[in-house]
Design brief:
mainly alpha, 0% strand, elongated
């Protein structure tokens, strides 16, 4: 059971690392649709990995069983993902700052345009002293 669980978890983390690398490339290319699609796929995979992670921790807490090589591979994959995320963070923060600035500029432009609205046309009856 333990070896199969570790093998499955390592396979899932390999897939996470692959998706993470694809996301990194999509970020550098500015492929927003690709980022969205890849992130949805990654979120689904993370949900399935989350369930196995607790079982792996329990297995590792029991110790022994000669799984050291597989555990080191799993830790290596986790570290690879974490390092890639750290590399991406400054770039993503810059992208967010640019988008926030553009959104503020659009809001300011919208506020300026609001000032140029035509007054509503005359509608309804005229007010007279006989009414």
């Amino acid at each position: 059971m333990g070896a199969a669980l570790l093998d499955r978890t390592i396979g899932q983390y390999r897939e996470l690392a692959r998706l993470n690398a694809e996301i990194e490339q999509a970020v550098y290319r500015g492929d927003h649709e690709g980022i969205d699609r890849l992130c949805r796929t990654m979120t689904e995979l993370q949900e399935s990995v989350r369930a196995d992670d607790s079982r792996v921790l329990t297995l590792l807490g029991q110790g022994g069983d000669g799984h050291e090589g597989r555990v080191l591979e799993l830790l290596s994959l986790m570290q690879e993902i974490q390092e890639r995320n750290q590399r991406l963070l400054p770039h993503l923060n810059a992208v967010l700052a640019v988008q926030q600035s553009e959104r503020r500029a659009l809001r300011r432009g919208n506020e300026v345009l609001q000032g140029y609205r035509q007054p509503p046309g005359q509608t309804g009856r005229r007010i007279s002293s006989t009414n």
